[in-house]
Design a protein that fits this description.
- With 86 residues, the chain is an alpha+beta fold.
- It contains 2 helices and 5 strands.
- The chain has a 5-stranded antiparallel β-sheet, covered by helices on one side.
- The protein is globular and about 35 Å long.
């Protein structure tokens, strides 16, 4: 599972050949969430509110890049790194 970004202790991953809808996984201090890329909503899991806001803001900023990665991952292609929040 490729690590595609990391910021403020949050790690963002994307897997190959996963089921729809297009999404990514985020981990922080033992908590995990799965986030729908198109809608910017949590599909599964829970995060502390501050970190969740950061992840959702990052998702909104990088939605196009995330979708490119998703399409590539569905074809078992390369998954690119995405700029972290600073």
């Amino acid at each position: 599972m490729p690590l595609i970004s990391e910021f403020f202790g949050i790690k963002i991953y994307m897997y190959w050949k996963e089921n729809m809808p297009a999404h990514f996984h985020a981990e922080y201090a033992g908590s995990t969430v799965i986030v729908d890329i198109a809608n910017g909503v949590v599909l599964k899991g829970a995060f502390p509110l501050r970190q969740l806001k950061l992840v959702l803001a990052w998702c909104e900023l990088h939605a196009d890049e995330l979708m490119v990665n998703w399409k590539s991952a569905m074809e078992h292609g390369e998954i690119a790194q995405i700029e972290p929040l600073r």
